[in-house]
Amino acid sequence: MGKTIAEKILQSHLLDDGAVVEPGNIVRAWVDVALLNDVNGPIAFRHFANMGGGPVARPDKVVLVCDHFAPAPNAPGARLIGDMRRFAQEKGIEHFFDVGKGGIEHTLAPEQGLIVAGDLVAGGDSHTGTAGAFGAFGTGMSWAGMAAIMMLDETWFKVPESMRFELRGKKAPFVTGKDVILRVLGEIGVDGALYRSMEFGGPGVAELNIDERMAICNMMVEAGAKTGMVEPDAETEAYAKAHAKRAYTLVRADADAQYASRHDIDLAAMRPMVAKPYSPENVVAVDAAKGVHVDQVYMGNCANGTLTDLRQIASVLAGRKVARGTRAIIVPATQQVYVQAMKEGLIEQFIAAGAAVTTPTCGACFGGHNGALDDGEVAVATVNRNFKGRAGHAGAQVYLANSYVAAAAAVAGEIVDPAVL
Amino acid sequence: MIFEGNIHVVGDHCDTDVMIPGRYLSLVEPCEIAKHIFEEVDPGFVKRVQPGDILVAGKNFGSGSGREHAPFGLKGLGLSCIVAASFSRTFYRMAIDLGLPILTCEAAARAAKVGQRARIDTASGEIRIDRQVFRTQPMPPFIQEIIEQGGLTAWVKAEVARRRASA
Question: In order of start, what are the domains of chain A with their CATH numbers?
Fold first, then answer.
């Protein structure tokens, strides 16, 4: 019987060769990467000490990224970053990214070649599944579980059932990977992939570059998925060749793999989408939200502060200004993306348009800092969640959208189809 | 293990941002986190919970951000057990690893009302709500082993000792 991508990656990481990788079975496995940030890391370090502490079993597999409370907005945040710095120093962890040295973990780790195709990646952050864009199995895990990996160099996984999403057709202007995943969320709902792997394949995949694939994989967890990936192709391989610091494997599904469900998506028939408050499944075409006044536009997160996003934003902002009564915040995902955007003149263009450009951070995406919202305020954001209270005051409202739609809203001061701006 | 307590009820898709907003993610002590549970949507919740009480939820409980602050805070409040129609997988694993027992039972989740008494047997999967009896899958033996030791920390300690003994 054929295997899905998730099953094959688990199979290649088993500790017990006799284990059977079938949905529902619990298997012991080793991971390639243990990814921690300044929210989950410090608590994982506490678990680690309570478990007996000592040396980390495989310090080379641990990647520590300061991105949530970075740069620290207050003293408690500074303490968390300090915990990261101390742990890295004490345990000899080479892959430690301090403020100014890295960026947002899910864009940064693959960019630095630390997550590669075929990897099994465990992370303390729920958006670890973003690694699926690069052909890796990434999954968010308990923080005690992350400590256990640092102690034992192993963990356990329940083998997930898999869902298949077949993409075809050419995408229309202003339609991006973000719209693909928003459309899927609208269709299957926020528990439509609970415990499952979401696997995207088909000829339409070639329409999406690696950055847009990140937007898709980033929000699979919003459907409850354990993991998910875009089936590797020439684009995946080119990225791996350019970035990988270890051997990589392109893992594709067997033709007779068993999927719990199959879904067909025609990119040519798609429109830019928005998810209305207060759920990522509350999805409509941008036209249906037209005219909603916008106080703030936030562009950036762990999958939408990419160079592709910044170029999309620039194409809309070119020769235009952020509307009076609206503020725009743009957050490049990593230092490398920031530098490239500067070289291309994008940053200057953003500032000329009246947008604030900030250092890489998760900041306002989780309501921590760098652009929180007040009662009654409305925002368009290229982030992944619009739950009540997440972006600041519980009375604030967030519409999720792609970078074209967000930039167009910044210019118009209201939600508008970027094609008719 | 058997738990008995008064029931508190929440609906479907209860996300972790609602349980504990992101601005509190710099807190690390369970008792501190517990003070802010459901603060935005139900400010009286924290005061109503008595040690040993049981939380009954709809589907997809714990969705959204995977933050240990959520199960930590619920456990820190004194809740002994959670029954839901379904759980977000990250929340499920976090709760187990922290030694907070959780069971999936849609029928019980739909029937439970605030203020009723519940008696839950995690080993047999029997859930009693006042006089109604529901049966669900008990937790898998491997998961029960972690819960019985009070969480993953003790389990890892035992595993480290076992490895040392066999080395």
Answer: 5-265 (3.30.499.10), 274-420 (3.30.499.10)
Q: Could you tell me the residue ranges of all domains in chain B?
A: 2-166
Residue A255 to residues A4, B44, B84, Cα–Cα distance (Å): 9, 54, 37
Q: What is the 3-state secondary structure (H, E, C) of B127-146?
A: EEECCEEEECCCCCHHHHHH
Q: Which of B89, B91, B96, B162 best tests the A interface by mutation, with the highest count of A CBs <10 A?
A: B89
3-class DSSP assignment, residue A243: helix
A394 has a chain B CB within 8 A of its CB: yes
ipTM of the complex: 0.93
Min Cα separation B156/chain A (Å): 6
Residue A19 in contact with partner chain B when CB distance is under 8 A: no
φ and ψ of A32, to 5 deg? -85, -35
Mean pLDDT of A313-335: 98
H and E: helices and strands count for chain B: 8, 7
In this prediction, residue B137 carries a pLDDT of: 87
CA distance A40 to A382: 23
Do residues A131 and A217 make contact, with C-beta atoms less than 8 angstroms apart? Answer: yes
Superfamily of domain B2-166 in CATH is Aconitase, domain 4 (3.20.19.10)
CA-nearest residue to B162 within chain A is A152
- B142 CB neighbours in chain A (<8 A) are 26, 156
